[in-house]
Amino acid sequence: MKGNAGLLVMRLIGISLLAVFACASSAQVPHDDVVRLNEFYRLSAQIEDGLWPGWSKVPDPVLLVTADAEFLTHFPTVPEKFTASSDGFVTRPRVFDPHLLATFPAFGAPSVIVVGKPAMTLIKTRTPWIIVLMHEHFHQLQYAQPGYWDAVNGLGLAHGDTSGMWMLNYPFPYARPEVSASFGELRDQLLVALRAPDGEKFKASAARYVELRQKFLAQLSADDRKYLNFQLWQEGMARYVQIKAAEAAATYQPTGEYKALANYESFDAYAKRARTETLNELQGIDIAKAQRVVVYSFGATEGLLLDRLHPQWRNAYFAHLLSTDALFD
Fold this sequence. Notes:
Elements: H1 2-25, H2 31-51, E1 62-65, E2 69-73, E3 83-84, E4 90-93, E5 101-104, E6 112-116, H3 126-143, H4 148-154, H5 166-169, H6 177-195, H7 200-218, H8 222-248, H9 256-259, H10 267-283, H11 287-290, H12 294-309, H13 314-317
Parallel strand pairs: 1-6
Antiparallel strand pairs: 1-2, 2-4, 3-4, 5-6
Helix pairs in contact: 2-3, 3-8, 6-7, 6-12, 8-10, 8-12, 10-12
């Protein structure tokens, strides 16, 4: 009897240890992160199709990267080595850098937004973090276009790099004196045209900008021009959508849970400064120092100019993959 009782106790201890191990191996999503991500999905559902028709049809998975674990949601399958967590998430031990803010096919199609907690990214605060997720969600729309990946490969700019890092590290001549000087002139004229009043002043300023744009691109090699066009089409227009998303969210009413988070900022408050922040960034930027980062504010400002030049330009955007040149013809 005593031996059987001892065996029973050992079995109970074993079951308890297995339960503890199971709980430890399936991390739980921090509450604040659940609230933020739920707010992103709620906001996106309300504004995305108004910003770009059909956007809501594109899958929008997010992988949240914390210090120790990763949490995946809205992905159509459960990738290998992920286990169930809470609130509709699956989890695994951390693999990616918790400072990451990017979109790519981490587990095959569809592409996933891979992002760290606000304090771990360059964004830092909560409401801008949600709006930047709209920027990344626009990348999901870009990548989902028929022929997108073939078009990227067709640029011929990878030169054997299969990691995709060429998109960040391509040796564009940012610091070449003639490129830097002509870009500065082009940037200044872009801001002049955007700020010009309606009427003849705007028409003349915009025409001058298009002329300088063609001149600037003509001085580049074929590969350099393809690379810049690709970056302006992809990253610049994603920043443009970020601005438009912030402005569309000005009347959005967040949930009480979101408003209760520490350091809450209203969407209306952020909407009032989102455009100005990008224009100020462009105004003071030096292409030789900023290098690839310049495409964000420059491309976004081109999108704002296109809103005035051709208000329906977004209908033609995906008809010309990886270049906005045709939109300025």
